[in-house]
Amino acid sequence: MTTKKSSDGFPDVRLRRLRRTQAIRDLFQETRLSPSNLIAPLFVQEGLKKAQAIASMPDIRRLPLAGLAKEVEELSDLGIKSIILFGLPKEKDGKGSSAFDEKGIVQKSVDEVRKHFGDKVAVITDVCLCQYTSHGHCGIVSGNKIDNDKSIDALARVAVSQARAGSDIVAPSAMMDGQVQSIRKALDDAGFSETAIMSYSSKQASPLFAPFRDAAHSTPEFGDRRSYQMPYANSREAMREIEQDISEGADAIIIKPAIPNLDLLYQAKKATNLPICAYSVSGEYALIKAASMEGWVDENAVMTEFLTAIKRAGADMIITYQAKKMAELL
Ligand SMILES: [Zn+2]
Fold it and tell me: Which end of the chain has fewer beta carbons closer than 10 Å to its terminal beta carbon, N or C?
């Protein structure tokens, strides 16, 4: 008996042939995660005696400076060679002075990692003011507005102090216009022409940042961040932000959050040859965690699916709170 052929090639074409066994599926897998392009975010809190749990981010802890090297060692043993540092200072003021203090918590943390690991770990530092300002905004406040041009001067100062401490890559996240150019110039003027800039080019005003603000004590005291962070409804505007950062001298770009922005990752991949990093944010972590704690989803399976999808969409690297857990599975 002969089966009638349809116009789409069936039965000659049988896509299931390449899915028959696990070995065959592994052979034909197009997208693979690797610990070497996962970046672990770490919170280091000044004056902390021992690691502190974060209520809205189960399994993630604020670390004392003295606990940082051990954490980085565990990551590095799992093959994760990149970290991004967030500091929680003791003192905050209107200008975020502790963000550019040579003895600030991030500067000391970079130094600590360098001391223990030399160049074996790529250290990325977040450049922003929100964890360091009494008002919790990402820039300098004048009246009830965020003053863009004063803010980029302050951000440049922060970036230089981090580079001086030994940061490999500074990551400006304040979404101020001209921040990349201002930082590039300040770094070059201070002799840090080798320090790279990975810019948060498209960072949206997202409700998914809520657990991070709890973790990093950075909730704004008044208003919100919508006058500087991107509206999530706009993709052309996101591409303009990316183009702008590239023209100002960014070495790599970040898109954040990740899962709601797979289309932007894909568009950015087509539009630029710069490395693209996706930041899978605290809320994405919390959603998976909460559902898995209820027994509604399998945490490892969902984490693997989400991270693979982020990479498939165009991310070369991923900042994720699940870095350690994922690397344990790989
Ligand atoms: Zn900020």
Answer: N
